[in-house]
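Fold it.
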Amino acid sequence: MKSIFLILVLVTSFTCYAAEESRSLKVSANRIVAIDWTHVETLLALGVTPLGIAQKQDYNAWVKEPKIPNGVLDLGLRTQPNLELLAELAPTQILISPMFSVLTPQLQKITKVTEIGLYKKGNVNWQAMESMTRELAMNIGVEKEAERFILQKRDEILALKQQVPSDFPPVLMVQFMDANHLRVFGDNSLYKTAVNELGIESAWQGTTNQWGFSLVGINELVGIDAQIVVIEPLPIGTEAALEHNQLWQFMSQQSNYPVLRMPAVWSFGALPSATRFARLFVRALSSNLIAKNNGE
């Protein structure tokens, strides 16, 4: 009886080890290079470290999370990657988005090129981000990791949603280009996708481009009753100029809600950036509510 039990234990242990070993070999066999940061952040979130990415320093400045492990090489510009370095790395697959499809003929001379898109007009929402995650995972053999990650993000969003007041007003999400012009985010944007998952609507009903924003003057926002959300960074000198901008001061004072300031979040990302935006939004909202309750 003891012998049978021992055999069962050994078989079970070997099966688990073999499955894990198979997964490790599958991932390592896919020597991945990613040009678009949407793919980079998704790969890292799924536990896959690419051989190299484009504009590594800029990724660290704009995307920030997930963090890039040591040893990942910088391949140069996203629009003009270092082809010699790419050839030396000998990747088994290069991931690109439709925006960089002009590179495909050159990259195909090096290895297999896989195009996976997300930002198409009228396409960006939470379900589209999940679909892109699954498509990417299928191409590199980490489907189980993708499903686990997707469920984790759903749970995190649900927990964040419970921290938002049920009667929270629509939000007007903007990013300044200068003291008089800004991007206002609406349909097809990562930001709107994130707040919608929190049960919040966007106050901007105007048209947007495939990236989910419109470039407008401050005067076009006057009269919109909403929680104003300013997303950093602000161009140099803009903050000081806004203190003397009568339209902006009028809007800020007429709003029933104090302006919400948020740190920069990569607006052209996928589930990792969308969840990060939701997390930082709730954190900023909580700080505002505490300040309001304290009479600040």
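The first strand starts at residue 32 and ends at 34.
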